[in-house]
Amino acid sequence: MAHSSIDVKVKFIRGFADKTRLQILDSIKKHEKTVSQIVEETNGSQSNVSQHLACLKGCGIIISRQEGKFMYYRLRHNQIRGLLDMFDDVLSHVHDEVTSCKRNDQCFD
What is the pTM of this model? Predict the structure, then answer.
């Protein structure tokens, strides 16, 4: 079954629509890191972080490489870093509106 371009965009954007996944992306935004480093920086559990890493990898946002017994994760493309930077830039302009939005939780169920 073919997916429409909107469906694919929705799937892609959902990769960013989770607090833990955004913490992971912020953690590896500048440098690749091991799972242990990511767990430490995000204060998450190993299993939870691993599940989110699998999600991010599955939708093409991050990639991994093995070196000895360690698995390293990094952003797949510089464009992903640019997108994360753009989120921060746009948010700096609409922060107050987003913070005070009372419909936010209703809009995204």
Answer: 0.84
